[in-house]
Amino acid sequence: MKAYVDKDACISCGLCPSICPEVFEMEDDGKAGVVTDEVPESEKDSAKEAEESCPVNAISVS
Predict the structure, then answer these.
(1) Which residues contact residue 46 at a Cβ distance below 8 angstroms, ignoring those fewer than 6 apart?
(2) How many other β-carbons are positioned within 10 Å of the β-carbon of residue 16?
(3) Torsion, CA 3, CA 44, CA 51, CA 9, rounded to 10
(4) Residue 40 is part of a domain; what is its CATH number?
(5) N vs C: which end of the chain shows fewer Cβ within 10 Å?
(6) Do 50 and 18 contact (CB within 8 A), yes or no?
(7) Phi-psi category of 57—alpha, beta or left, where left has phi over 0 and alpha has psi -120 to 50?
(8) Angle at 18 (CA atoms; ends 14, 22), nearest 5 degrees
(9) Domain range for residue 20?
(10) H or E element in which residue 3 lies
(11) What's the CA gap between 24 and 16, in Å, rounded?
(12) CA distance 16 to 19
């Protein structure tokens, strides 16, 4: 399972790293980014929660 952040859609709300800091982080450009190429098995549920919680649908996890 991989996570992806659409930087053009991201509004820098910080919700995704607050839900799943093992997968998402706020980067130097102020936008969210992905910490790891593969979502760890133990973080799949929280990564999906971050995807579903994104107010602008900038995250995809599949």
Answers:
(1) 19, 20, 22, 23
(2) 27
(3) -10
(4) 3.30.70.20
(5) C
(6) no
(7) left
(8) 115
(9) 3-61
(10) strand 3-5
(11) 6
(12) 5
Overall number of domains in the chain: 1
Low-confidence ranges of the chain (pLDDT < 50): none
HEC secondary structure over 23-37: CEEECCCCCEEECCC
Q: Which of 19, 9, 62 is nearest to 38 (CA)?
A: 62
CA angle 61, 35, 25 (to 5 degrees): 90
pLDDT tens-digit readout, 19-33: 999 999 999 999 999
At residue 53, the pLDDT reads 98
